[in-house]
Amino acid sequence: MSKTIIRQEDLIQSVADALQFISYYHPLDFIRAMREAWENEESPAAKAALTQVLVNSRMCAIGKRPICQDTGIVIAFVEVGMDVQWEAGMSVDEMINEGVRRGYANPDNVLRASVLEDPDGSRANTRDNTPAVIHYKVVPGNTVSIEVAAKGGGSEAKAKFAMLNPSDSIVDWILSVVPTMGAGWCPPGLLGVGIGGTPEKAMVLAKESMMDPIDIHELKARGAANHLEALRLELFEKVNALGIGAQGLGGLTTLLDVKVREYPTHAANKPVAVIPNCAATRHVHFTLDGSGPAVFTPPDLSEWPEIDFDLGDDVRRVNLDTLTPEEVAGWKSGETLLLSGKLLTGRDAAHKKLVDLIEAGEDLPVDFTNRIIYYVGPVDPVRDEVIGPAGPTTATRMDKFTRTMLEKTGLIGMVGKAERGDAAIDAIRDSKAAYMIAVGGAAYLVAKAITSSRVVAFEELGMEAIHEFEVKDMPVTVAVDATGASVHKEGPKVWSARIAERIDAVSV
Question: For a disulfide at 304, which of 20, 55, 58, 507, Cβ 3.0-4.6 Å?
Fold first, then answer.
């Protein structure tokens, strides 16, 4: 086999182009699966969420802007052919990271830098989203094959691992942990399962599995040919039967597919890893053969359903500039609101600074009296944008700050994604406040409701600084109302019962 010369610049440019490509194009198998889920969904709340995700996806494909404000941490699965020669002065790690650097700093589509160094210390942003997490295999051949993914922090945070006993049921364990993931991973999406090897091998297997194409319906049609395919089908049916649904609101589709990979393991062990992939599923494969950088072909826009984003007349319009605690107390869990006016932002780092100031008895840089805070770290704007994609971040990370913020600042409401924990719900109920959700995976659509933006505090925090947005008809759903009623508790309960009734009816 002849030697192939891979040039440094070709690898760098291919990685940069791949990251731009996946930032605004969903994989087509994902769009087809989401479209099918949208067509079949019967839960009004879940269907509305799926509508926003699909509308957002098409907007991003046309406008070439990020699907989600969390543009991910980069993961690369690299297979290097044994007959490859390099024309390079950098290591392969350095080339890939230079591609990440260029991809995230592209002035036409700046991507959010979310990677922090010194993770248990200063947690300083590297500013260019490097370094990537890179896995290598050296294989026969004369090409370099790379799968590039950008994995959001919300779904990564829900990864689970266990060292089961050899006789333990993998299905039982997964069914016990999926409900604990909540909705912070922005379902519906994929579940990657890794079985065997050692703890670190199982986690890599789970991550690798999610790069495989969505084909669960083809598998259902032909039937399982082996144990792993039977496991996929069983998990797909039983996890969906939990009724978690889109954004955790309750519905028919929680998973679009389940992927499983395995590896031989020690006789005393059964390592099992589970990692979800979210509604911002982003990955692409390319091969370098020495002929130049990879070429990425845009998908056909006809694959996306042309859906009108219309919330109908059954919505409450809210003026944030005149909002009162009494008005907030009248909102009901599950109700749709359209927010207009001035909206503050803040997430983990900003909340920590605010709570530290409160505990020190110092003045806050912002007046939160009768204000709403939006948990978001937006993408920087380009061209004539006011702000880049600005979808919600997972609210549960702010739970430990919620009581202090509500009781000490005058704050009366919050917007984020996913459920709140019991401590946060208790604080919301005690303060007669409210928590609302915007749809995770609809960041570009949400940004279109923002008419102006300015940083008002903690500018040094970058994307975690406190902004003041001016919004016009920003769609949100009341997830926890002033009585403590939670749509994330009630929705899945209702839909799991309905699905169980249908299963029982078919079985009779």
Answer: 58
Q: Which two tokens stand for residue 27?
A: 């994989």
Ordered by where they begin, the domains of the chain are: 1-152+298-310 (no CATH), 153-279 (no CATH), 316-491 (3.20.130.10)
Cβ proximity of 73 and 19 under 8 Å:
no
Count of beta carbons in the 10 Å neighbourhood of residue 50:
28
Residue 204 main-chain phi, psi, to 5 deg: -65, -40
State the maximum Cα–Cα separation within the chain, in Å, rounded to a whole number. Answer: 76
- For residue 172, give every residue at least 6 positions away whose Cβ sits within 8 Å of its Cβ, in sequence order, or none: none
Q: Give the global pTM.
A: 0.90
Tokens 């042309």 map to which residue? 306
Q: From start to end of 30-172, where are the E strands?
A: 73-81, 84-87, 116-117, 124-125, 133-139, 144-151, 160-164
Q: Is residue 293 reached through a cis peptide bond, with omega within 30 degrees of 0 on the bond before it? A: no
pLDDT (tens place) for every residue of the chain, 508 residues total: 578 999 999 999 999 999 999 999 999 999 999 999 999 999 999 999 999 999 999 999 999 999 999 999 999 999 999 999 999 999 999 999 999 999 999 999 999 999 999 999 999 999 999 999 999 999 999 999 999 999 999 999 999 999 999 999 999 999 999 999 999 999 999 999 999 999 999 999 999 999 999 999 999 999 999 999 999 999 999 999 999 999 999 999 999 999 999 999 999 999 999 999 998 899 999 999 999 999 999 999 999 988 877 766 678 999 999 999 999 999 999 999 999 999 999 999 999 999 999 999 999 999 999 999 999 999 999 988 999 999 999 999 999 999 999 999 999 999 999 999 999 999 999 999 999 999 988 888 889 999 999 999 999 998 899 999 999 999 999 999 999 999 999 999 999 999 988 877 766 5
259 Cβ neighbours under 8 A, 6+ residues apart: 190, 191, 192, 193, 209, 210, 212, 232
In whole angstroms, give the CA distance from residue 482 to residue 479. Answer: 10
